[in-house]
């Protein structure tokens, strides 16, 4: 039981073509080769052993395909996302051609500090979507990295009581937050108040307030109000079959 909980609590899932814990990714530089592969006829793997699949993934890297990966979209959950899966459910439902999507829990700060500098040289367009305490921690991680290459950072109702700084190398930082948590005093909003809801962040390029009935766990609604999610993620390599609205990416 504990192993199952631990696996849920500290993973990074990668689609396509596989999912595996981040510690497995960090074991070898060679394992980053899967990021350079695309989804052409690839199946989601149910094993953490990637080595046996490296040859087939490497052979797909040079194929000319509309599904070739050009963008990486990272979803980072909040403090209780391992249980409530507010961000994780949106991560699962997100679909975009030419993109790899990753998910991690809020407590992966040091792991991102190690992994992101190894992803940057691959020159993929990178978007990070982080909620609550996960947003606070990814900001810490990015500030600990000397040189970032992030196309868009989207923070969703971030919390925290520590001082924050704007990380270097962020092209566009959009912050979406709940205007008044007290007006809709449910469990998610109470959690945000306890954690220290940051609301508007002057360091961000854009701040958008959402009012009741939206609340701290209204991830899908916050993304539908996000200019960065709509204009940055859906353009270029992330054209969806029906790209007219952001909601088409969140089936």
TrEMBL record:
It comes from the Bacteria. SUPFAM superfamilies: alpha/beta-Hydrolases (SSF53474). This is Alpha/beta hydrolase.
